[in-house]
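May I ask you to comment on the folded chain given beneath this request?
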Amino acid sequence: MSHAIYLSALNHHQNAELILAENLYQQVLASNPKHADALHYLGVIYYQTNRNDLALASLMHAIQLNPQVTDYYNHYGLALKQNNQLSAAIKSFETGLRLNPKDLSLQQNIAATFFEAERFEEAAGYYRRLSRLRHNKSNEFNTLMAETLALTLLNLGNQCAAKGAYLQAEACFQEALLANPNEITCYYNLGNAQRELGLAKEAEISYLSYLKHQPSDADAHNNCGNVQREQGKLAQAIASYQTALQHNPALYHAKVHLVHQKQHACDWHNLDHEITEIRNWVKTKPTAQISPFAFLSMPNTTEAEQLQCVNNWLENRYASTLKQANTLDFTYPNTHLRSNKKIKIGYLSADFRLHPLAFLITELIELHDSKQFEVHGYSYGINDKSSERKRLEKAFFRFNDIRALSITDAAKKINADQIDILIDLTGFTQSSRTHIVALKPAPVSINWLGFPGSMGALAGQSLFDYMISDNTITPLESECFYAEKLIRLNCYQPIDTKRAQAKPPKRADYQLPENAFVFCSFNQSFKISADIFAIWLRLLLQVDNSVLWLLDCNSIAKQNLIKTAIHHGVSNRKLIFAPRETFMKHLARHALADLMLDTLPYNAHTTASDAIFAGLPLLTCQGTTFAGRVASSLLLNNGLPELVTTHLADYEAKALYWAQNPAELTALKLKLTQHKANMPISNTKAFTTELETNLHTIWQAHIAKHSL
């Protein structure tokens, strides 16, 4: 009789007659309290009617009576999931799958629960399996599984990207698009991951694929502009930023990028007004995403404004990372016991490759005293397999390629290596991963060389402990505009004196007139301001048989400079553009020029040391910010004060004087070449020793502070 009632209950249950079915299950259990199947299905009805506590009790009782039935664990898991007990639900599904690994319903349910728990990697594993079960499945099922897998991978990719694990993120988005090409957001997020990996060309393709479907997305146009810019596609980048602003005029970072690219293009139309607007945003719109590097490159920005800009940037981009640092709470074991042991230095950079940075620091790394220091390199940029890269790899005690690591894992690696002083050589420049430093993996951190300014503070806490500078670049009256403690060397910039040089070329090799006076500037085009170029044109008009030799940065800048020159009555034949060359050939061709003219407000930096090292006089005008004082620092430190001016009128007058008095300029060149061997620029060993002395000092100060 009990079995007949049970079968009747099942029939009513299958026909969705839940009240009748529940009553009949209760009758079965009244006569047989250990009827596990009746308990199971009664629990299912409780689950279906949102009586979860009763469902859980009934289903658990069924499992206790018969722990070998897969369906019991499946429905118990669903009840737990509905009760938001996700971990317990997953365990129940896993138990069921151990009994029957091929159960389709269990696989779907555990996958959905992993997804809800934001355990996307595990969810993706199940959805991959389900999406492969194509035989005997409907097209609707196959499509649903592929779409769900793609959505899961999209979320997993986003998780990876949030941790700075961009290689994993890229793989997730690519797999998602293979599963479902209509998961359009994946194209956008894939582009973001590829850009972080330095894959600008691939990122552009991804953004353009996304924009085919979402042509009005301003952020996507902006990001596409970023990677076009990084590929040197200036015209396309400008067009992308303009389109972004058409769709969203309040997209402040797109406007900042557009203005900076106008600087690269030497398009000065309305530039002063636009920069004034951006300076006002720094003061009045702290949530605006204004690139600190683009901002400090803009004429008329002050040290105070530049500090405000980086502080805003930290608030917008680094607040969560600094909170994570508190969560990680890295320890620095036995720091106070290591005062007499080697100091472990870590250099962090995206640019351990064929890059200006390599021409500054390689010899210094080689010269570090291995008896006092253990020097580690942490590279998160591309490996270009250049000779510069290979030399750097050999220079370090240990060279670590951390490009594939997430931000957190990279910080954990540095902390596990027990680095004492971490020196960031990239800062807020292209490919920055300063978030690693923000996690505080080392007890002391230093900002140096990459970013010409302070890296700011958040809520009164400086992002870096120290910044390396000198008295010319950061005079005492400027100290308040730097969040870091300042380490003042004699000169802040080192140089690699062992760089290979090519044989000196002839002027004809670069279309330079044999008997002309050659003014030159090898600074990037964004550093050329309208005021500086106007001075250069006046010099060309006043100095007979003179030419201006400029770096051929991009075709738009070249066209605009020629157009401006002609407008001011200067023949385009007086402007000669130097093509890109290998560094060896570039350094050698300095000898073909007579006088290098510096830019303002952003001076020559590595370009300045190149000129001095090559024996070419560089005339500078000292500015009012870090970026505008580097050339002065190099010249003064190397005993060349006659090449430093402090007003543009004096700068112009000196350039004209030397062009019209070649004998005195020749004497200056002789001073450079004959005394170069005794100049500080030629003594990297002395620079290294001075740096090491300062590193010892700050390390001893740290030990003393933490031994109290």
Summary: The chain has 31 helices and 15 strands.
